[in-house]
Design brief:
Largest sheet: 8 strands, parallel, barrel
Number of helices: 12
Helix content: 40-55%
Number of strands: 12
CATH superfamily of one domain: NADP-dependent oxidoreductase domain
Order of helices and strands: EEEHEHHEEEHEHEHEHHEHHEHH
Shape: globular
Strand order of the largest sheet: 3-4-5-8-9-10-11-12
CATH class of one domain: Alpha Beta
Strand content: 15-25%
Distance between the termini: 37 Å
Structural class: alpha/beta
Radius of gyration: 19 Å
C-alpha cells in the first residue's frame, strides 16, 4: 500500500485503522493481535486512538494486544489525542465535560498513553478539539518538552479551523503536521470553510474521520442522505463496482489534497473494500456528481 509522507522523515499508511469502537468488536487480546497483524500485512500500519475512546479503555486494550508481540511496535505508527475531559465513572470528581490543554494535563496524558500502549514513544500526538480557553505558549512548551524527551515524535491537531491551526503553528515554528477533520460525501464542512484549501497551501495532508458519515450513507434516512446514496449507487453502476463504500473511499482518494481516511471497522471485508478503492478510476465528473448530490445544487 502507498505511504503518505507527512514530513520528510515520517510517513503513515494511506489508510488508517481507527479504534474508537474497539471495545465493540469483542476481541480477545490474541484475536486483536491477529487482526492487527492481518492489517499490517495488507499495508495498514497506522492506528488511530484517543485517550477517551471506550471510556478511557481502548488504548490499554490495544496495548495489551501489542504486549503479545512486542516486535510489532517497530512496524506500526501510533496516533493518539488528548484534551477532552469526559464525565466518567473513572473521574467522579468531574461535573461537566470540558477541555484541558494545560502543560500538566498534556504531559500527563502522554505518560498515561505510553503506559497504556506499553511503548516509550508516540508517533503522532494530536489535540482532540479546539478550545475557547487555550494558551498556545503553554501548549508549545509541553510539545517541546515531550519532543525533546523522545516521548512524542510529531504533533498535530484535530477539528481545528485554519485560523486555529495557523495560530498554534506560529508558536511551534511550523511543527504541526496534520489536522484530523471530518470529511465525507455527507460532510463538506471543510471544503466550505476553506480548511482544505488552507491545508493544501500549507502542504499539510488532512486525516479524515468518519469518511462514511458513521454509516448513514449505507442506510439513508434524510433527504440529503438519500440523494448521496442514489448518486453513489449510480457511480458504482457506471464503474461496475459492487459496493458503495468502495466509491466513498475512491472519492476521498481522488482529491489532490491527499486525504487519508480513517476506517473504524472491525470487519476485514469492509477494510478490504476500502483497499480495493485504490484501483477505481473515478472521473472528475463522477466526483462532482457525488459532491453536488451532497450540496443539493449544481456548482455556480
Amino acid at each position: 500500500m502507498e505511504k503518505i509522507q507527512l514530513t520528510k522523515n515520517f510517513s503513515i499508511s494511506r489508510l488508517i485503522h481507527g479504534h474508537w469502537r474497539l471495545l465493540d468488536w469483542n476481541l480477545s487480546d490474541k484475536a486483536l493481535l491477529q487482526f492487527t497483524q492481518q492489517l499490517t500485512e495488507l499495508g495498514i500500519t497506522t492506528f488511530d486512538h484517543a485517550d477517551i475512546y471506550g471510556n478511557y479503555a481502548c488504548e490499554k486494550k490495544f496495548g495489551d494486544a501489542l504486549r503479545l508481540n512486542k516486535k510489532l511496535r517497530e512496524n506500526i505508527q501510533l496516533i493518539t489525542k488528548c484534551g477532552i475531559q469526559l464525565i466518567s465513572d473513572k473521574y467522579p470528581q468531574r461535573k461537566i465535560k470540558y477541555y484541558d490543554y494545560s502543560y500538566d494535563h498534556i504531559v500527563s496524558s502522554v505518560n498515561t498513553s505510553l503506559k497504556n500502549f506499553n511503548t516509550d514513544y508516540i508517533d503522532l500526538f494530536l489535540l482532540h478539539r479546539p478550545s475557547p480557553f487555550f494558551d498556545p505558549e503553554e501548549v508549545a512548551k509541553a510539545f517541546t518538552d515531550l519532543k525533546n524527551s523522545g516521548k512524542v515524535l510529531y504533533f498535530g491537531v484535530s477539528n481545528f479551523t485554519p485560523a486555529q491551526f495557523k495560530m498554534l503553528n506560529s508558536f511551534l515554528k511550523g511543527e504541526l503536521i496534520t489536522n484530523q477533520i471530518e470529511i465525507s460525501p455527507f460532510c463538506l464542512e471543510h471544503f466550505e470553510n476553506g480548511n482544505i484549501d488552507f491545508l493544501q497551501y500549507q502542504q499539510v495532508k488532512p486525516v479524515a474521520w468518519s469518511p462514511t458519515a458513521g454509516g448513514r450513507l449505507f442506510n439513508p434516512k434524510s433527504e440529503k442522505e438519500q440523494r448521496i446514496n442514489n448518486q453513489l449507487q449510480e457511480v458504482a453502476h457506471e464503474l461496475e463496482v459492487d459496493s458503495i463504500d468502495k466509491i466513498i473511499y475512491s472519492w476521498l482518494f481522488k482529491h489532490p489534497a491527499q486525504i487519508v481516511p480513517i476506517i473504524g471497522s472491525g470487519k476485514i471485508e469492509r477494510i478490504k473494500n476500502a483497499i480495493e478503492a485504490f484501483s477505481i478510476d473515478m472521473t472528475l465528473e463522477q466526483w462532482y456528481k457525488i459532491y453536488t448530490a451532497s450540496t443539493g445544487e449544481e456548482v455556480p
